[in-house]
Fold:
Amino acid sequence: MRKLAALILVIGLAFLALYNHAGDTPSREWVEAMRDSPRGPFSRIRWFCRDGSILPPKPYACAEHGGGIQHGQWSDKTQTLRQNGYFIANLLAGVDPAAYLSAVDVEQRYAQLLIEKFLISVNEGWIFRKALFYRGAIQEEDERAGARALLLQMLADPDWLGPRFVALRAGVRLLPHGQDSASIGSIRQWSASLAEADPAFAPIRVKIHGSPDASDAARVRAFADQSTRKDLQQRYEDLALEIDAVYTSLPITELLQQWSQRQALTPVLAQALEQAAVQWRDTPAARHTVSGELMASIRAHLGSVVSPSERLALLDLSLRLETEHFRAATELTEGLAQLSRRGILSTAAASASAAYGTGLLNSRLYAQLQAELSGMADTTDLETYRATLGYLGRAPGWGVQAMRRYFYQGMMQLNEIEPKSILFIQDQLRGSPLLYFSQALDILLRDAGILAGVKHRVFDQDVGVGLNPLNPGLARGILYLEMPVGEPDQLASNGIYLLPETVSDLPPVAGILTQGAGNPLSHVQLLARNLGIPNVSISPELIDALRPYDRKPVVLAVSSGGVVQLRQDGPQWDKVFGSASQPQGVAIRPDLKKLDLTPRTMFSLETLSAGDSGRTVGPKAAKLGELKKHYPDAVSRGVAIPFGLF
Structure:
């Protein structure tokens, strides 16, 4: 025990040192300064040679050093931030994919890489706001080649095709990786030529060379409207038209037909593509169904395609299908309430297929969802219908957990220096097939609730989906949408807190709203169950409805039958709670006759069962032991410390 205590002390001091060191760094202020700096996170432009040399910018500087690439060099503050775990200002030019992916902290680095791409798109370039126009700092073709090399390396690894697929596909979505073409080359040449003819065009030329996208056409036209160079007007318009042409896609049916003829595909996948091209119709329902089913087929058969480059091209096709699916879902939403139950179930099944295709559902959960959905169409028993809908309501939470697995830690890390980072998972999910799935399920749950006389209520809004009662109870207190960072002991005892599911410690509070699906073995849920605290998991889509009531008195009621109400507090609740405005304390009275303190050695999980809860070990250890007995290969090996050792 002395060794264990010493080890805990050493670990604690190490974390304290890290915390204090990070606290000395004015990181958020540095990031804000980078946004306004013409050089952003860079100090200067340098050549980075293959032999490790770093040389000043001049033509062919690395010619005698094995070749190399030119880009911006991180400033001292950027390097300090990266040393402290904030992996910002990512450059993929010249990346060694194998070394990158074999690093111990690859998941953290990769997550922050993608979150940074998100920040650049939603926050006016973020720390690159002005650096995008810093000539030579970002070589777009080198970045594109580096991203492509990284993705191809990932696509050659079965682990990324399997359990890490959702993270892989997010990278395909967020990392520019297309191969160069004559059209892109001509855009670069024309923009360079125009910058020579009109120096005022130089910043846009740098933007096009460093970070091109479809919006560049509008940017060129807006510049032309303000330009006094009338002799260049036609050249500006030609450039804008060329940009439009690059970003105009082939008709989807033609694209699918072309794909079905590719030799690299297995017969099953080629047939799925050909069938999709035939079944495609210009109606929202047809596009929604065909795109969802084809996305699922692409994921299911991706591993059968040998070439990583073909796999990458298939995922690009899947992204195009996802766009079509989302557009069709948006059109369907307008008339969703008018569809029959069978029609809504059919569209929900298509979105479940698309969600599997994006990686938000794994194969086991997807198969179960499809089985439940297909069996519901002919269900006449109301209780079975409601129970099945309750199960289907877990799917959005599964998607949240899939994203949290790979991006939560990186998101929270970057949130310390950029608050918009916290929106990453929410943004990805709101643009995903699970958005429509939730909307369709909400209609069905409202319908089932009306039939059964049951419905949830969040303030002034009836809610059918997005609330999952985890523990019944009644609470009156103050709603808090944020908790003190790193200081759970400062939570108010009369607080009703919106918490991340991964919170590791929590004192007794009045009520709990758990973000995500909710884990019945989590510390939060065990605390809620033992203390009689009402606990409800809430989906991200409903959080905006809570914001007007942040830090205001509310009532959280969760019935044993699963009905949830979150209402504004007022005198009408006095009859329920009595005159006292504060909730009464909860007394814990353990069963001392059951308690057994004689065991003084650690238990292996295999030796425990649910009956040991409150006798020799705590409920979490006992129930994990019970699970270990039923699912020995699915529960990791472990030991439990008995009460007698405490």
The mean pLDDT is 84. The first strand starts at residue 42 and ends at 49. The chain has 26 helices and 14 strands. The radius of gyration is 28 Å.
